[in-house]
Amino acid sequence: MEVRMQKNTQVLQVVVPPGRGPDVLLSSPVIQAAAKVLQQGGLVAFPTETVYGLGANGLDSEAVAGIFAAKGRPADNPLILHIAAMETLEQIVPEVPPLARRLAQSFWPGPLTLVLPKGPAVPAVTTGGLDTVAVRMPDHPIALALLAAAGVPVAAPSANISGRPSPTEAAHVTADLQGRIDIILDGGPTPVGVESTVLDCTGTIPVILRPGGVSKEALEDVVGTVELDSHVQEGEAVTDGPARSPGMKYKHYAPKAPAVLVRGEPPGLFMRITELAQELDAQGEMVGLMASRELLDYWRGQGIDQSKWQVMSMGSRTNPGELAANIYRCLRELDETNVTQIILEGVPAAGVGLAVMNRLQKAAAYRVVDA
Ligand code: TXA
Ligand code: MG
Hints:
- The protein is of the alpha/beta class.
- It folds into two domains: about 10-235, Alpha-Beta Complex (DHBP synthase); about 260-370, Threonylcarbamoyl-AMP synthase, C-terminal domain (Rossmann fold).
- About 35% of the residues lie in helices and about 20% in strands.
- It contains 13 helices and 16 strands.
- Strand 2 (about 45) and strand 3 form a beta hairpin.
- The longest helix has 16 residues, at about 320-335.
- The protein starts with 9 loop residues before the first strand and ends with a strand.
- Magnesium ion binds next to loops.
């Protein structure tokens, strides 16, 4: 039987002096205190450039077990190890294939996670029993300072309760994990907003297991051909057989109300979404929408009454970075309303838009309508 200790979670503000890197933060008492908690086997949530992570010493089995307990995460879903220096990679993997080294040189620090054969120092609990390990160097001064001060690779999944949207603000972490972890470092909103791209580098051609902050196009500019895992490609959940990335088979990022994703190009897309919202409305549903600025403009232009709907504006369809930065906050905000049906506007899947569409598909539990 599980006995969960109620922890006294401290939320600590970290202010990054403008224009300064992680070095200036290294000596900060807050970073030092958080690093000590990590060294002693505790749990610290911290901002990265993508989303907030829930960190523990990745080489300490008991500490890592604490992450799974705090999140309610299935034990076979492996974690990403976070490092602040290339040298740390040698502690984690027996060798770095040339292709992986080139990718690390081009994209680290940054939102790219490399899956590599694992070395003996990494405990099985960190990798969910797999013989590979996922590693990345985050591009955030607070994360880098914390990792450097802790001096160990830090295992960190997104700092949400399993099945909730990833946290892009410290308040999201507090909402999910208050009382379950030791420290939350508040460094403001995370700039990228979707998680890192997970790239399997164990074969000759790298395979994207999870689209994320680094686009397929950017990877291909550096290493030529990159494949998309077939499940990502088809936008389907893995329901049978082994998943290459165990995270793919779990329901993720799902809002409380059922959601449907509508795909297509404007103006047909906008017309279909509007019809659907009006239909649901007529059936007595409380309608929530995740919409682009362009859809809002379309409604204004057509004089469509949207006053009864809960509308979250994700940003411009032409700016995938803006959509990515807003998607999880919008999903969480919709959850705080009384909507009973959610309509998600599909966006162009180019660049980081691929990651946005992947998260929207998951939020819709793969209920997709073509306009
Ligand atoms: O941006 C991010 O990656 C954030 C921040 C905190 O760094 N972290 C994050 O971790 O999103 P998490 O645990 O929520 O997602 C990690 C994903 C999961 O889908 C997991 O299945 C996959 O990476 N993964 C981890 N280790 C793997 C491995 N050895 N082989 C295949 N997939 C792996
Ligand atoms: Mg996650």
